[in-house]
Amino acid sequence: MLTEINKNLALFVLLISQFVGAQNDTIQLKNNAFLVGEVKSFSQGILIIETDYSDKDFRVEFNKVKGLIIERKCLITLTNGRRRFGNIRTNAKGIVEITLDDGIMEYYKLHEIIALTEVDDKFWSRFTGSIELGFNLTKANNNTQFTIDGDLKYADEFWRSAGSINVLDSSQDDVENTKRTDVSLSLIRILPRKWYLLGEVSFLANTEQALDSRISPSIGAGKFLISTNTLYLGLSLGYAYNIENYVDASLDKTSSEIFIFSEFNMFDYKDIDLNTGIKLYPSLSENGRFRTDFDLTLKYDLLLDFYIKLGFALNFDNQPAIEGNDFDYIFTTGFGWKFD
Prior knowledge:
By secondary structure, the protein is mostly beta strands. The chain is built from one helix and 21 strands. The chain has one helix at about 1-15; strands at about 25-30, 35-45, 45-50, 60, 65-80, 85-90, 95-100, 105-110, 115-120, 125-140, 145-155, 160-170, 175-190, 195-205, 210-225, 230-245, 255-270, 270-280, 290-300, 305-315, 325-340. Strands 10-11-12-13-14-15-16-17-18-19-20-21 form a twelve-stranded antiparallel beta barrel. Strands 1, 2, 3, 4, 5, 6, 7, 8 and 9 form a nine-stranded antiparallel β-sheet that branches. The longest helix has 15 residues, at about 1-15.
């Protein structure tokens, strides 16, 4: 009798959550306790849910979960590299029901789910971004440095896109001003089994390397070696074409390269985001030329979607247009705000 009451209570809570105005995902535990709120992520055996009645997110071991209902559509990663996109819930028997966009319903066991990411139905709600400012002042030599950074990202079932801009303006007494502008726009097409195609256009202007502009369109393919809701590691290979204009116009040139790119991104891990990437560019058109771009960004989340950031970037060219300007690096700090 008590078991039957528990089953009916569980069904009632799962159903009533569907009629609450705000988003209320529902998690039922094996001890028949319930958590109602917004599922933030699930990966590596840990489900994270944000609730209105706790300052901190709940971290739930997935092997303790008995049932769930998630309101938004999800990108769902299953065992054996299978991927699905649709609405997900468990029925009274504890079987996972995934309703695809075409209305077809598929059924799985709960342990077959290894990761999921919520995707908003509204197009504009799929964008996330951030903007940040940094300012450093040193009395010695009257040194000032101003930075502004921003990014905008989009994600859906098959596509990922990202745009970013980083601007630095530094000045001090008796030294020529340093200016650096770095802009990139990328598009990724998700393929089965963690493969993807990518296209990117980047722009760099850097007084330290006497570079007025370098425009570099590129295309390639890659694979997510690790892909969860809190981190990913990707490796890609492709072709890049450079259009370079220097302060000395006689040095202007074009060139072609192979690129090898590895990126590691850890996000929403105990209020810390870490992103680092390295690109290697062996030249196809210039004998012996080799370039490297490396960047690292560390963010710590504060209240109300604000954060503080520490960044490092390095550019290396073993055949610079001007002797002695083979590499440039910058350290930055900033205070920013993100939106989603």
